[in-house]
Amino acid sequence: MWLSKRRFLTLLAGLPLAACGFEPVYGPEGAATALRGRIAYRAPETPEGFRLRARLEDRLGRVERGDYLLQIGIETREEAVVISSDQDINRYNLPGRATWALFAAEDLDADTPLASGEVRTFTAYSAFGSTVATQEAQDDARDRLAVALADLIVTDLVFAAQDLP
């Protein structure tokens, strides 16, 4: 009985979305599927750039020469956030920022991109263990940061896709 009430409430909650023209972006004709396999990527040749590009390829497909070129710049830094009474740093934040610009492949010399944006996020890691454990934690945090930045870029691209030629 409770389950059927829950289904009814879920259906009832979805009605306003259907009435306003809501369309899933990952649906058969959604904006995200229109981008899949059409974007080539240019990211910095750093470990973060490599991981960001790999995540973009996972989400939007791998293409060497697509209809669009996505150029990405990444900035990261490291901030000490927990310092012990012995002046040891025990935790670091890794804030990151990625700027991106999407160009038409046939018009790469254009001054104005078809879409552009900036995304920011951060991750953190603990420096409590051995030197090896701290280095692994730092590498993992950098990977997580790149993945999070890539996911934010994909979200921005999906919103921009409806205005692309």
Q: Which whole number gives the mean pLDDT?
A: 84
Order of helices and strands: HHEHEEEEH
Helix tally equals 4
Class per helix and strand makeup: alpha+beta
Separation of the first and last Cα atoms: 50 Å
Low-pLDDT sequence parts: none
Beta content comes to 25-35%
Binned, the helix content reads 40-55%
| Biggest sheet features | 5 strands, mixed
Number of strands: 5
**Overall 3D geometry?**
globular
Backbone CA Rg? 21 Å
Structural overview:
This protein has 165 residues and is an alpha+beta fold. It contains 4 helices and 5 strands, in the order ααβαββββα. Strands 1, 2, 3, 4 and 5 form a 5-stranded mixed β-sheet that branches. The model has no long low-confidence stretch (mean pLDDT 84).
